[in-house]
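QUALITY CONTROL LOG
STEP: pairwise intake check
CHECKER ROLE: data steward
CRITERIA: each record must contain a sequence immediately followed by its C-alpha cells, with no blank fields

ENTRY 1 OF 2
RESULT FIELD BELOW
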Amino acid sequence: GGGAHNGGGGGAGGLVYDSFVLLSGIYNIGVGRGGAGGEFVSSGENECGKQGENSFFDSMLLAVGGGGGGGSVQKATEGGSGGGGNGFRLGNKEGALGVLGQGFPGGIGESESNTHYASGGGGGAAEPGFDGNLDITKAGNGGAGLPFHITGVLQGYGGGGGGGKGKGCIAGNGGYGGGGDGFWPGANWTGGGGGGGSDSGKGFFGGHGVVIVRYPYIAIDNANGATDVTPNSASLNTWIAPGLRSDTTMYFCWGSSDAGTDIATWDNSFAMNVPEPFGPFSHLATGLSANNLYYYRTAMSNDNGLVWAPDVATFITGEIWFEKIKDASEIGPETGIVRVIRADHLKAEELNVFYSLSGTATFGEDYEELSGKATIPAGQTSVDILLVPIFDHLGEGTETVIFSLEAGPYVIGSPSVVTVEIEDYGQVIRTWTGLGDDEYASTSENWNPEGPPFRGENIILNTTSHKNMIWDLDILLCDWLQDGYTGSVSLEQDYGYPGQGSFTNLRVLGNCTINSGVLSHVENENKQTHRLNMSIDGDLLVGVNGAIDATGKGYTVGIGPGIPESRSAGSHGGRGSTSTFASGPCYGSTLNPVDLGSGGRDNSGGGAIFLDVKGSTIINGFLKADGKNTSGGASAGGSIILRTASLAGAGTISADGGRPSGGAYSARAGGGGRIAITLNEPGAKFDEFGIDNITAFGGKPSATQKDSGGAGTIYLEDGNTRTGYGIFRIANNDHTGTPDTEFPAEGQDPEEANTATFSLYDGAAMVLLDDFFVGDIRLNTDNTLLDLGEKTLTVYHKEHSLAPGTVDNYGEIIWETGPRGTMYVFW
C-alpha cells in the first residue's frame, strides 16, 4: 500500500495454499493480514516493515502468511514503498509485484494552517501509485493491477508496488494486495490490500485475503432425477451449468434399459433447441407403460461437440407405499420402524424415496434426526426407516411422528401416510441428598437417583438434606421445587461479559416454587461477574418461609462504582451517607437495572436478580437484593428486574441500602438499590401485592449519626400502561438527613425515562447533576426535595404545582406548553 508523508506503506495480505478438492463441510479459514509499514523516527534507526500474519485452514494445509510491510522513508515528499514479499510462510519485507492488485487513489489532507496537501496513490500490482499534484492539490491515482487468470499455473506474489509521491495529512488508501493464483481446480486465497501510511506515521496493516473456491466443471446433469411421475408419464429433468455461449441442442433419452451414450440406441429421444443454455430444463415423457422401470439420460450438443450427463437416472411408473412395523418407546428404549415398499418386479435398480415428518413429537429433541430420504437398494423390495426415540427426561405423554410420502421418481401409492407413536418414559424427578463430598449440583452422589440432573427433569429440595447447594449446570429444567428445605441454593451464573462463562440463564419450562430455603447467586468479588437470571415459562411462587435473596452478594468490601475514597458507605441508586469524604456516585440504568450494589467499609453490596416469568408471580416471602447491615460503613442495595404476567402476595420486594449499628464516625448508611417491575397481562395491577411492600430505601442511620443513605429507584409498569410510561417511585421511609438520588446517574442515558412519571415520597431528594428529561414529576410529601443544581429539567407534561415538596437551587424547569399531538380514529 502507498505511504504518505514519511510513512511506510502496509504489506499485502496472505497468499494461497496448495490446491485441493474441497469436501462438503464447515471450515475455519483465515488469510493472513499484511504487516504494517515501517514508522519514521526523528532520531535513531527507522523501522523496517512488519511481518505479515500466518494464514490457516483448520491446520489441514501449509500456512502461508501475509507479506511484510514497506520500510519507512525520510524524504518529506516521498510515499512509502509497497508492502510485499512473496507471502510464503511469514513473508519477506521487500516490495514485489503481485496478481490481481489495484491501487486506490490517495486522499486530500489539510494541515493545522489550513494548507491542503495531496497524498500519493496506493501501489498496484503492476505499477507504483502515481504522484499527487501539490500545485492543484490533486491526489495521485492508484497503480494498475495485473489481469487475473484461472488457467495455467501462476506463482503470485503478496505485495503491491511502491506508493506515489505526495505530502498529505490523510493517507492514500492501500491497494488490493496481489494473491497467487495457484493451481486449478481447487481452493485458493488471494492477498488482502496494504494499508496507506498516515502523515509522519506508519502504514496501516494490510487487509485480510479473499477466499476463492473452484469446483470441477460439470456441464450437464440429470438434476436429481424424474418428477411428476404417473403410471403413463414423467417429467425428465436436466441442468446446464453456466459457461456455454452458442446455440445448444438438448437431448432427453429414455427407455427400458440403459443404452449408454449413443442417442440412436435409446428406445426414445427428444431434441430441444436451447438459445440461452443455462439453468434447469425438462421434458414430459408420455405414453409410458404402467408398473415399469425406466432409464433416462440427458445430453447437449453445440459447436464444441456432444456432452452427456455423467450418470444415468432411473424411475418407476409403479407405486411406493408405507407399512408401519412397530411404534417407539422411551422405555427400553424401543426403536419404531416404518417400511418403504415397492413391487418385486421393479427392484432391479436403487431407488431414492422421499418423505416428510410432522406430528406432536419434535424432530431432534424427541427422536433422532432423520434425513427425509430412504434408499431402497438394488435387488431389494423394501427398506426400513428407524425412528430412534430420545429420552428427554420430560413427562410429555405419548407423542406422535407422522410419515408422509413426497413426490419422487415413482408413483405414490397407499398408504402414503403412517403415524408412529413414541411412548413416554414419564417425568424424571431428581431429589437433592447432598451425600457427595462437595456442594455442586454436577456431582452425581448429591442426588437421588444418583447422577447429575439432565435436561427436562424436575428438581426437588426437601427435608432429605438441608445442605447448601451450588447450581453449576447450564441445562433446561421442567419444574423447580424447594419445600421443607432450609438451606441455600446459589446459582453459579455469569453476566456473559467477554471472558466470562457461558451459563447466563436458568430456564424452567414449568413452575418455580420456593416454599422454603433460599435461592440466590454466588458471591462477587471486585468485578461484576455473577447474578441470578431465570426464565420461568410457568408460575413463580415464593412461600412465607422462602426467599429469593441476593443480599450481600454484590461488589465486595470497598469495591464498586459507588464506593468513596473513605470506603465508609456504598452508593448505587441512592448515594451512601457522607463521613470525612463525600460518598461515591449513583450509577446504572433505572428502567433496566442490572448492576451490583457497591460494597461498604465492612461488607458486600446487594447482588442482582433478573426474573422473566411468563405466568403469574406470588410472593408471600422475600424477593430482595439488599445491602448488608454492619457496625461500620454499610453497603448499597443491588438490582431487581421482575417481568411477569401478574403480581400478588403479602411478602416484600426490596433493594434497600445497608444499616450501620456502630457509634463510630465511619458508621454510615448505604444507598438504596434499583428495582424495575413490569406486569405484562392486560389489566394487571399492583393492587394485589401493595406498592408499599416494594422498597429501595437508603439505609437507616445509626443512633449516633443523623444521615441516612439516599433512596434508590423503583419503576412500576402495570398491564394498562404503555412501555416506558410507568411510574418511578422514589421514597426514603422518612429517614433523616439530606440523602441524594442523582440524575442522570453515572452511565445513565438522560432521556432514558422521558415518558415516565417521577413520584417522590417520604424524605426523598432528587438531585440533578446534568440536564434531565422526565414525562412528569410529583413531590407528594412536604419532606421531598427537587434540587435543580443549576441544571435544566425538561418535563413533557403541562405545568402544575410541585407542592407540598420543595424545589431548591437555581436552575430551570421547562414544561410542555401544548399537546404532544392529536390522534383521530375513524371507523
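ENTRY 2 OF 2
RESULT FIELD BELOW
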Amino acid sequence: MSDELNIEGVARDIELLYSSSNALEIHELQERLQTYQKSEIGYQLGFKLLENSNKNVKYFGALTITVFLNTHDSSVIFENCFNQVLGVLIELSTSDFTGNLFIIKKLISNLSLLYIMNSEVANFDPVFRLLSAISGSKDTAMSTMISQLQDEKQLELLLLFLLILAEDIIKLPTQSPKLHTLIHNTVFKYCSVLFEYLYNNLPSISTRIILLSLDCLSSWVVYISVAETNSEERYNDDVQVFLQYLLKQLDIETNINNMEILNKSFTLFTEIIDNVPRILSPLRSTIFDILFGKNKFGTRYTKLICTSQEFRETYSLEIENYVNLVISYLGLNLVLITRNINDINVVNIIQMTMALSSIPGIPTEDENVSEQFIVFWEDFTETYIDDAEEMKPQFTADQDQANFIAKRNEILLEVSRIFFKKVLYYPAATKEFRSYRNSVAELFGSLYSLMGVSLYSSICDLICFNLDQQDRTTETFQNLEAGLYLIYKITSDIYFHDDHEEDDFGKVTLTPLINEMFNKHLVSVVEGAPEFVTKQLQITLLNVMSVLPFFYRNEVGSQHLPATFNFLFNIILNGANETISLIASRTVYKICQDSEEKLIPFLPNLELILLEMLKNPNIDDTIRERMTHSYISIARATKNPVDWGNRVHGVLMEIESCYSSLNEELEAYAVSLISCISEMSNASLLPEDVEDYLTLEQLNIHKAYWIEDPLEIRSKVLKNLKLFSLETNMLSRNSIVTEKCCNVLKYGFREELPGPFTFSVDIVFEYLVAKVQNCNTQSIPIIHGLLETIIITSFKTIHPDATEILLNSIFIEIYSTIVSDVDLVKSSLDLFTTILEKRPALLLQTPFFSDTIIPFAIQPLYLHEIFVVKSVTKFWNTAITLKKGNSNDHQQIKDIINSSIQNTTIGVLLIEALLSGFVSAPRSAIEYYFPLFRTLIARMPLEVKNWIRHVLLNSSMGKAPLDSKESETFLNKLLLTRGQRQANDVLRDYWLQVNKLTNFIKYI
C-alpha cells in the first residue's frame, strides 16, 4: 500500500483541503483525492487514514470508505469490512468520544451502508454484532445485552446506529419490500427492547440520551411510514412502547431544564400524526386526557402560555410546536369533535382552543398562536359544511337538531368575536399583520358560508353600535374599521362570481343591513374621524363601497349616492394621500360600471370635476383617466345621443385646449390626456346585445344622430390624435401615445352602430400611413396590431388598393428596420398570417408578395426565439393550406414555392431554413416545427421529398449528419406518415440522431 501511494502525502493534501481558502487549489485537491477514493485502493486507503492522529484525516478516511462502498461491489468483503469498521469505531469511542463523535457517526453510517447494500445476501444481525462489540457480552438475549450497557456512551452508540440506519433506508431511491421485512423481524425488535429499557429506567437516563432517543424515534416514525407505503409490513401493537415512552415525557414538570425535551416531544408527536396516525388509535383516550384533561399536562401548559407573557417571549418556538401538536391532533379527530360539541370533554377542548386563540397581544408581533389557529377554525367550520348530510341521522328529533345547531352557532359566534378583536387595526401595522387580517377574513368567509346572514347581521349591528356612540374613542373607530373590513371581505366573496341570483339576494337580504349603516351617518362619521385613524378607515370604507353594486343599483341604496360621491370626490380632489385618492377613483370607476343609470343625475357635478382634472397637470394620471371613463360611460347611459354628444364634445374641446400648454416637462400629463381620449372611446362602446339595451325608437335616433354627427365629433377626435401623435416630436415617437391612439381607432371597429368613435377604414388607413412615417420602432407592432383588428372585423369591405398602399408604408418602406428587430419580424408575420386567413387576395395580389414577403418569411426559420418560430411556422402553414383561398390563389402559392431565386427553388430554400432551424433548435422547442413539416408532407409530398433529399445531400445538418443511406431511410419513414401525427416521432428521432442524443422514452 505504501509503495503504491504516499500516505503522508495524502494526509497533507487532506489537511490542506480543510485549511486552504484558495478556490483553485481546493478544486485541484478535491479532484485528486476523489480519484484516490474511487480507485481500487480506496478501501485500504480509508483504513490507513483512520490510523492518522489528525481528526480531519481520520474523518476523511471514514468518508473514503463510504465512497469506495458506493462505487464498488462489497458483497465479498462486507463481513470483514463490517468487523474492521466496528473495531475502529470501538477504539475511537473509548479514547475521546466527544472529540471523535463526528468520525464515529460517519463510521456508523458505513456500517449502515454495508448492511443495507448486502441485506439480501448477508446472514448476520448487525445490531447483535454492535452490542457484542461495545459491551463485550456473549449473551444472546436482547434485553440482557441492552441492560448490560452500563456506559452511557455505549447506549449512545446503539441509538446512533438505529437512528442512522433508519435515515439511510428512508433515503434509498428504490425501496425493497424484502429489506423492510428483514428490518421489521430483526432490527426493529432491538428498538422495542431498547425503548422498553429506556421507559423503565427514565429517571436515571440523562437529558442527552433522552434527546437522542427522541431523535431516534423521529427517524423511525418516518421509516415506518415509508416501510408501510412500500411493503406489506404493518406496525401495530409493537410500536406502543414508543408511544408510551413519548407520552411519559409529557408527564414531567414544565421547567426550563426540561423544555428542550418537551420541544422535541411536541415535534415528534406531530410527526406521528402526520406520518402514521393509525398507531395512535389504541391510546386515544390517554392522549386526550394528557392534552386536554383537567389539571393534566396540556391544560397546565396552556395556562402557562395564556397567563405569562415572559413565558411566551422566552419559549416562542416551543409554544409554536406545542400548538402545532394540539392542532394536528384535533384535526385528526375533527369529525369526532364537531359531532359531540355537547359532550363535557369536548366542551373543555373547545374552551382550551378558544383560550389559545385569544392570547393577549397584537398578532404577528406579540403573539403567533392565534394565527396558527385560523386554519383549525376554518377546518372546524368546513367540517360542518362538508358533513351536513352525514350528521342528519344522529338527530332523533327536529328539536335535537335545532339545539345542536344553536350550540354550534354559539361556538362559532364566540370564535368570530375572538378574531374580530384580533383584526383591530393599529398605527404602523406591519405587512405580516395585514396578511394575518386577510387570513382572518377568509375564516369569516367560511363562517358566513355556514352561518349565513346571521353573521353578516351581527357584524353590521356591531358597526351600527359604534356609529351610535357619541363619545367615540380610538377603540370605537378600530371596531368600526374592523367591522367594515370584514363586511368588505365577505361581500366581495359573495359577489366574486357575479351571479345574478346573488344580486337579488343582495337587494332583498343585504340591502336593509347596509342601509341601516348608511342611515347611521356612516360616511360623515368616517369623514369626521381623528387624523390618526382616518387613512385606514377611509381605505376600508372605499373598499366597502366598491363591492356594493347591488346596493347602489336599487332604490334604497341609490339614495346614498350623493353622500357617497361627495365623500369620493372630496378625497380625489383634495389629493392629500395619493394612495387613497387612487382607491377612491377606482371605487368611482366600479360604481359607475355597475350603476351607470343611477348616476345620470350626477353628470353636471362630474363634468365640473372632470374638466378641472383635465386642466390640472398635478392630478394623478390614473385618477384623471378613470374619471374620464366613468363620466363618458354615464353619459352614454342616458341613451340620449344629443346629451352624450355634447358631453363628449366638451371633453374633446377641453383636451384640445390643454394641448397648447404642453412642454417636455409635462410629457406624462400629455400622455394622460391622449389616454383620456382612449378611455372615452372604450366607455362609448355599446353593450353587445344592443337590441336589448336600446328600444327601437332609441336605436333609430342613435343611428340618425351619429350618421349626421352634427358636432363633427369624429373630426375633433382625429384632430386630437394628429395633434398629439403626429405634430409633436416629443409625443410622436412615444409608443404609449401610439398605443392609445390606435386603441381609440380600434374600439370603433367592434361596433355595429355608428358612434362618436367609429371611423371608416379609409380614414384609419390614411392615419396609419402618416403615423408609420413619424414613430419609433416600438410603435410599429402596435400599428400592425391595429391593421390586424381591421382585417378581422372588416376584411369583406377593405379595398385591395388601399391595403397595398398601407402595406407598402408599414412594411416595404421600412423593410431594413423590420428585419433588424425580431419583434417587428414577428408582428409582420402575424399581420400577413391574419390577412391570409381572412382574405388571401389582399396579400397575394400585391406586387411585393412573391418578391419580398416570401423571402422575408424564410429567414425567421433560422432563428430560435420561440415566439418568432411560432409565428413563422403559422405563416407558412396558413400560406400552404390557404383555407379561404380560391383555386387561383392555391395555384399562385404553388407556383411561387416552385419558382427560383438565383437558381435555387423557393421550396429548397424553405426546407433548408426549416431543417437548419429545427436541427439546431433546443430540445424543448422542436415541437414547434412539427406542424409545418406535416403540412408540407401532406400537401406537397413529391416536391418535399426531392427538396429534403437535395438539402441533406448538400448540407451538413447537426453534429452527426446523415449519410446518403440514412437520409433515404429517414425520408421514407417521414413520407410514410403522410403528414399524420406519427411524423412527430420520426422527426424527433432524426433530431436526436443528428445531435448525438438518446431517446430515453424508448427505455422506460
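INTAKE CHECK: passed for both entries
DESCRIPTIVE NOTE, ENTRY 2: The beta strands are 900-901, 904-905.
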